[in-house]
Predict the 3D structure of the following.
Amino acid sequence: MNGVVAALLAWAMAAPACAVVITESAWRAAGGAEEAWDQGFSAHEARAAEAPFRAMVALSIDGGREYGVASGVWLGNADGKAFVLTAAHVFDNEAKPQDFRFRSTAGTVRQGQAVTLHPIWAADVDASGAFDFAIVQLDGPLDDAGAPPALYRGRDELGRRAVMVGFGTHGVAPFGHGYRFGPVHGARATAAENIVDRARGGVLTIDLDEPGGPGKNRMGAAAPASDLEGILAPGDSGGALWINFGGEWRIVGVNSSGDPGADYQDVSNFARVSMQISWVREVFPAVRVSGNKGEGIERRQRMRRDKGEPDDQAF
């Protein structure tokens, strides 16, 4: 292993976001136990393997020996090249696109060729993650993921159930994440569900709710979204947050950051796709886009008025 790869591996181990942290009850229901820490994730892996999420891509920085140090989502092909949306912070510490291999869920492997970082991120890393976007051009097409997914350009994410998908470390609240739950970086994608609790500017935020009561909740509804409730953990940066609008799955966020632990009330943040549609189109004009720009504003205003709060269109 050369010095560059070693440095990149060390960086990836400390990346802001990863695979998923799930609830203890879901983990035990699927076979997890103190004598079987690495079991209990089958339902979450099965969710990630469903057809709508075939566009997910795993990244490797050691020549393809280990995948899942980061994630991405295939946007489509143009001029014989695939384009992948991921997080800009994946390329911190002087990482170059050529350092990475990109593997589709069906097994096609390509090498990174060029990367375009969001210009605001590239100029001055934004702590909020609102500009944590990068688009990577690969050295060939990806033709095994079905139709390209659609990016969402509306403003109706708040309060909706979402599915996050990525590769990386597994974790269980309140036990944490790490080696005992299996490989540090996953060979398979893992998914979790949650409710979008906050949509503020360019960032979407969720929190991990404890089943059975409101005692462990930081924001939004206290009840878990489903038995697949979860948040991000180390290795999943650059993956995608999806919401089903009227029967069509759309990408609403890029996995960006979160609390460093793996416990109830911890939060995960996603760079909000709808705020950066114009930039994505500049880089990859063939991108699929769906949703009305004004979608959701009236619904949110009604929600705020019902709570006695003033209208707020700063979304």
Summary: The two ends are 46 Å apart (CA to CA). Residues 1-18, 309-315 have pLDDT under 50 and may be disordered. Residues 81 and 140 are 4 Å apart (CA to CA). The first helix runs from residue 3 to 13.
